[in-house]
Amino acid sequence: MANHSSTKPDWHILVLLLLPPLLWAGNFIAGRAVSASVPPVALSLIRWGLATLCLLPFALKPFLRDRAHYLTYRWHVLGTAITGVATFNLMVYWGLHTTSATNGIILNSFIPFLVAIFGFLFYRQRLAVYQLLGLLVSLAGVLTVVSRGELQVLLTLAFAPGDVIIFLAMICWALFTLWTKEIPATIDRTGLMLCQVLIALLFLLPLYAWESQVSTIHITDTRTWWILAYIGIFPSVIAFLAYSKAVTLVGSVRASVFIHAMPVFGSLLSSLLLREALHAYQLLGMLTIFTGIWLANKAMHQPVVTPTSRR
């Protein structure tokens, strides 16, 4: 039985694919901005608490309607809640306290490779030649951006304890992506996300009780509250729903490769918000990244037979 994708993804699917890396790039900047004021577990708890308030008005009805399905797919629901919602961002926030933004972006760029490797090892998913080539080309673009176009920058990178933590977070996101694909598309994604967020909050509460004994929250201005509001709404609710829907529509590898666009959007946001100049190496890196994404998605026009689909 073949898995056909005969037409190009239309504009609304491209929006679903590009919106998460745009909003997560903003989350990276926002998370760094409040890291001195709000410790990692508290930041995660505030983030998902705000997300719950945003989700309740329109997610409660499908949440109640689909509750029997959550039990049917309980291990996938529990797994995605713990890895993608609770653990991933908590470990990123934690890791960024002891490593640089550059290292974080480089480690983040390995997510599509982890998705492809785990998909092959555990789900026998095939990786088309164009997908592999696209992953490599877009990774080259990421490295161009973070190294400022200088090989010496990459050769002299020093890795800190936070890098190990962030790499473990990348593994969590790869598992989240693959397990999301295993949850049927017939289950409403807004209700599912509410379920995942509630599980994540239960997971985070005891960690916060421990963290509050050793560190405290220091919010002294309204700017920090606006940043927290952004984190709780845009990269949490909107980006997660868009990413989950994209994984359902185009597959785990094709959706994850768009994560390579994060440094592109990070550079653009820094230019717009922080008035930083755009350099030639950034433009070259952006062009290379989007070339890689285009190559990876050429496979969408080709029929693919996966080992698990043979009868």
Automatic annotation (TrEMBL):
**What organism is the protein native to?**
Methylophilus rhizosphaerae
Question: Where does the sequence pass through the membrane?
Answer: 45-64, 76-96, 102-122, 129-147, 153-179, 191-210, 225-243, 255-274, 280-297
Protein name as annotated: Permease of the drug/metabolite transporter (DMT) superfamily
The coiled-coil segments of this chain are none
Q: What top-level branch of life does the organism fall under?
A: Bacteria
Record keywords, A-Z: Membrane, Transmembrane, Transmembrane helix
Instruction: Report the family membership.
Output: Belongs to the EamA transporter family.
Localization of this protein: Membrane
GO CC annotations on file: membrane
The record places domain EamA at: 14-146, 161-296
Nucleotide-binding is among the record's keywords: no
Q: How does the protein's chain sit in the membrane according to the entry?
A: Multi-pass membrane protein
